[in-house]
Input
Amino acid sequence: PEFKTCFGSDSFSADLEQVARIIAARSKLGARRQIFFVQFDGWDQHHQLLKNQAILLPMLSRGLAAFRDALIEHNAFDDVTTFTVSEFGRSLESNHSGSDHGWGGHQIVMGGGVQGGRIFGDYPDLANGSPLDIGGGSFVPTTSMDEYLADLVLWLGTPVSEMSYVLPDVSNFWSVSSRTPPLGILA
Output
């Protein structure tokens, strides 16, 4: 299908445009549920952190905005949840022009079913010497990736009885017998 929405020329936007096209053609394809993976590299910035983020963050913003607009245009926004996943965070301590690997990080979730405009989980006190500071600008996360992913896995329809199989460590952070999702990201 054609879009009125204009996507950028960068590879991230081009990948999202292709995903939006497939989603827009879902009824013709006979697809009831689809999962797509889009890779966006370049965030491991040990050097030139601010310079690189000045390029990457607007690219991320424009790509996600165009993807959202295309989904709305094809009446699919309420049926799609878009989310980020990263295997590591960055330290808060500078190494002169960047930062080192650290624990924790922020994720983005968007879609018609998302309880938007909120921070989910507990935002840590990022002051040096706080109880979560383990040195070197690294802080112990207050919300586990298992909790975050459990919300998404439940949204995908995974039975609670299978949660420990899908996310073996989730019981360290959330009771699988709970009647509410760990974070409540999705309505």
